[in-house]
Amino acid sequence: MSISASQPAPQSPDSTRQPTVTDRLVQANAEYAARFTDPGMDARPVLKVAVVACMDARLDLHAALGLELGDCHTIRNAGGVVTDDIIRSLTISQRALGTRSVVLIHHTGCGLLTLTEDFRHEIEAEVGQRPAWAVEAFKDLEQDVRQSMQRVRTSPFLPHTDDVRGFIFDVTTGLLREIDPQH
Ligand SMILES: [Zn+2]
Predict the structure, then answer these.
(1) Residue 119's domain is classified under what CATH number?
(2) Cα 24 to middle of ligand 1, angstroms
(3) With bands split at pLDDT 50, 70 and 90, how would you rate the model's confidence at 8?
(4) What would the 3-class secondary structure string for the chain be?
(5) Which domain does 31 fall in, by range?
(6) Looking at the whole model, is its pTM more than 0.85?
(7) How far is the CA of 53 from the centre of ligand 1 (A)?
(8) How many Å lie between the centroid of ligand 1 and the Cα of residue 94?
């Protein structure tokens, strides 16, 4: 049996419970799909760019950068930090899906400015297991953008590292500020 957008959302096992936030998202998706027409795109981003950014809820990348559906890859994590997994996604983005430019976006008021590696130690004390990942907390936004640019530029896995630029997004003005990689 095929599933189409016109079918009702699956019934909750307990239809008397209050709708959850996920229920709300599923409902919104049904409305989205009802208006959706297949744009006929393939998976290769039209603008050949990958944007690496923080997961922050105040950062609407498509609106802030004038991007349309299909234009770019968006790769996000806490802080927009260039971790091994970001390099994994960038490598696939460039080698398998044709992107050439990388844009890195951190932002003012980032949660990682308030954390330290103690976060990890506290988790270890609580659950008895040390996370394998670093928190990647930072105190200096500009310095962390520079470090992120450096990690991308020096990755041996990425064939295209000549157009890598880093920015800080101001969550109060919506404006990007470019960070000079040399300072
Ligand atoms: Zn953030």
Answers:
(1) 3.40.1050.10
(2) 25
(3) low
(4) CCCCCCCCCCCCCCCCCCCCHHHHHHHHHHHHHHHCCCCCCCCCCCCCEEEEEECCCCCCHHHHHCCCCCCEEEEEEHHHCCCHHHHHHHHHHHHCCCCCEEEEEEECCCHHHCCCCHHHHHHHHHHCCCCCCCCCCCCCHHHHHHHHHHHHHCCCCCCCCCCEEEEEECCCCCCEEEECCCC
(5) 1-36
(6) yes
(7) 8
(8) 25
